[in-house]
Design a protein that fits this description.
The protein is an alpha+beta fold. The protein has one domain. Helix content is about 25%, strand content about 30%. It has a 5-stranded antiparallel beta sheet, with helices on one face. Strand 4 and strand 5 form a beta hairpin. It is globular.
């Protein structure tokens, strides 16, 4: 074995295992812990996390796709996309 092979083996074996993100993902942002409050059935509450480790809770108004808060550590374009996709997958009216 050459020194390069040993170095490569050491680097790959010492690397932490990749962890798949749970929930619904759009690009680098994933959402989980989805819930609808009984008092406001048009709202969807979820927790977001991006690949950099930023986390936050988000409220989506499924009537128009608006998100709250408007600013936060997770990139808003992807956060809104996760929220809209979650609203489409969990319709307001039961089937």
């Amino acid at each position: 074995m050459t020194l390069t092979t040993l170095t490569l083996a050491t680097l790959t074996l010492g690397a932490p295992p990749a962890v798949a993100a749970p929930g619904l993902c759009v690009g680098p942002v994933c959402g989980d812990q989805f819930s609808r409050p009984a008092a406001y059935p048009w709202q969807l509450r979820l927790r977001l996390q991006d690949q950099l480790g930023h986390r936050e809770r988000l409220v989506v108004d499924c009537r128009d796709g608006s998100i709250s808060p408007l600013a936060g550590p997770v990139e808003r374009g992807y956060a809104a996309a996760v929220g809209r996709k979650a609203c489409r997958m969990a319709p307001l009216t039961p089937p």
